[in-house]
Amino acid sequence: MQRISLAHGEGGELTHQLIQDIFIQSFGHSEQTQFDSAILAIPSQTIAVTTDSYVVKPIFFPGGNIGKLAITGTVNDLAVSGAIPHVITSGFIIEEGFPIKSLKEIVNTMAWEAERAGVNIIAGDTKVVEKGSVDGLFINTTGIGVMQKQHRLKPEAIREGDSVIISGTIGDHGVAILSARNELGLLTDVKSDCASLNHLIHELLEEIKGIRIMRDPTRGGLATALVELCEDFRITVEVDEASVPVRKDVQGACDILGYDPLYLANEGKVVIIVDSNDKQKALDILKNHEMGKDASVIGQITSCHIQSGKLLLKTAVGTTRRLNRLSGQLLPRIC
Amino acid sequence: MQRISLAHGEGGELTHQLIQDIFIQSFGHSEQTQFDSAILAIPSQTIAVTTDSYVVKPIFFPGGNIGKLAITGTVNDLAVSGAIPHVITSGFIIEEGFPIKSLKEIVNTMAWEAERAGVNIIAGDTKVVEKGSVDGLFINTTGIGVMQKQHRLKPEAIREGDSVIISGTIGDHGVAILSARNELGLLTDVKSDCASLNHLIHELLEEIKGIRIMRDPTRGGLATALVELCEDFRITVEVDEASVPVRKDVQGACDILGYDPLYLANEGKVVIIVDSNDKQKALDILKNHEMGKDASVIGQITSCHIQSGKLLLKTAVGTTRRLNRLSGQLLPRIC
């Protein structure tokens, strides 16, 4: 059989075979074999839980595929919360006729990326729907992480003068997806930055006590992530546009198409608010990693405990303007 | 705004509003507000985790909707594993143009069912895809339950003579879905049995020490669930067809359409293997509940420690035949 059929999703013999041949083959046996749920021991009673559905289009893109994105996205959500990613569940919704070869490739990528990140994939689910009822393949991943007391983030300690750091160039994922869709009308070499940041973030949390809070600037981009931080913690963040790292080809694509890299999705970046006394140490650690080599201090907290938080951008020409979260439609199905 | 637009899934202002107006309105605030993950304390270090995607068609059916199914299905998966359901995550994939009124109704049903089952809904996610890329609405739910030592299931204690109990009539969900699709060509009053069984199962586990293992016979029906038990634990189960409870109208629909109720999905039933000394006590507890009032002993374990498990059916006419798991295509998108 070369393609997925509806019967693969019926819960009977073919579902059994699909699970045996593809999922268990790649993900290994879980504790789940005897039960409807995976039963597992976890090294803490405080856990972090996150869930995401992935509907990226196209499913394969420069720098990754939907499976890699599902693992790295979930790992990063846990990591920026200060948790150590522990296990991930995966739910597949597959269109009838989907090539089994592609499914295998995606599942193998997930297994490989999970191993790199040090998480186990447990408790999967597979549904198959008729041709036309879903666009190829969607994946949901839910991650459970373990909180460690010594890694507790301290957003309550945010104060004026704290630094804002981004771990690298922004907008790469967004432009890679646009490019893969041939929506650019031009060729770029930009690859998605999608990567698991948990080991890098773990090192930062081990070494630096002054980290207040972190976010992964995915859908909605860096600007939206920062606006949310400003609102959640009632602070003003001032970003210096000139210090925000953007690849030349990403900026070029944005200039042509009228996009702002600040609003384009990233899938392997973290934005960090840190005590300014620790900013150099944080930068040193980041730059020592492949994934953080373009890290940059991009701004600071200019006021705290205000009524409603706001994000300000100091532009290259010296003016300051307020940025809001992404409004309206920019790029559907970016992740 | 009356319909979901692509911009509702972009992670910006409209996503924010959708989450505020619909999800937080119904599900309440989670611990998630400050982080990318929900951070929570759990009362045990042994947990059960399960995940399921729901693609049922139609989304609304007699006895429930996709949201009720997502909660009850996940609650039941945890409960039959011997876990106390604790939290559920929910991921929504919504088709552009989906009516906001329907989304609200579904989300409200989920909130209501979660409250009834005693679980919190945490850590949601919303993606919106273009018209035609998904059939209305799919939901993924992942559940985390807490294991209790005194409720540990003991499949290793299964022995010859153990009883097999089903908690009520089978095939109701399957026929209700068929009926809602107008595929029957006849009208039935059959409602889906979809319901959270965790309180009932909790009482069984509190009162009866001889429960070996449980399963919820969903996709693939009672026969597939029993075949899996037989294979997993290398036992022979002999089921007496005459004692399997089937509603008359369900049997009638099956007779007309050529379906076997043993393979039709159930969404509010549990099959239990129990020490035969405890079978009467288990029946008494079940029959004392609305959801277990039609419970019946349907068979027993006739051999253990065999090379490969098998399920035998003693038919009404006195013959015995072997049943396999569902093979091929029966009813796509039943859950």
**Shape estimate of chain A:** globular
Distance between the termini of chain A: 29 Å
Order of helices and strands of chain A: HEEEEHEHEEEHHEHEHEHEEE
| Beta-strand content of chain A | 25-35%
Q: What is the averaged pLDDT score of chain A?
A: 91
- Major sheet of chain A: size, sense and barrel closure? 7 strands, mixed
**If you consult CATH, what is the topology of the largest domain in chain A?**
Phosphoribosyl-aminoimidazole Synthetase, Chain A, domain 2
Number of helices of chain A: 8
Number of strands of chain A: 14
Protein name (chains A, B): Hydrogenase expression/formation protein HypE
Domain PurM-like N-terminal (chains A, B): 36-147
Family (chains A, B): Belongs to the HypE family.
Organism (chains A, B): Metabacillus litoralis
Summarize the structure.
Chain A is an alpha+beta fold. Helices cover 30% and strands 26% of the residues of chain A. Chain A has 8 helices and 14 strands.
What does this structure look like?
Two copies of one chain form a homodimer. In chain A, 30% of the residues lie in helices and 26% in strands. Chain A has 335 residues and is α+β, with helices and mostly antiparallel strands. Chain A folds into two domains: 6-149, 60s Ribosomal Protein L30, Chain: A (2-Layer Sandwich); 155-323, Alpha-Beta Complex (Phosphoribosyl-aminoimidazole Synthetase, Chain A, domain 2), CATH 3.90.650. In chain A, the strands form three sheets. Chain A has a seven-stranded mixed β-sheet with strand order 9-11-8-12-10-13-14, with helices on both faces. In chain A, a hairpin with a 2-residue loop joins β3 and β4. The first copy, chain A, is globular and about 65 Å long. The first copy, chain A, starts with 12 loop residues before the first helix and ends in a 12-residue tail after the last strand. The model of chain A has no long low-confidence stretch (mean pLDDT 91). At the A-B interface, α1, β1, β2, α2 and β5 of A face α1, β1, β2, α2 and β5 of B.
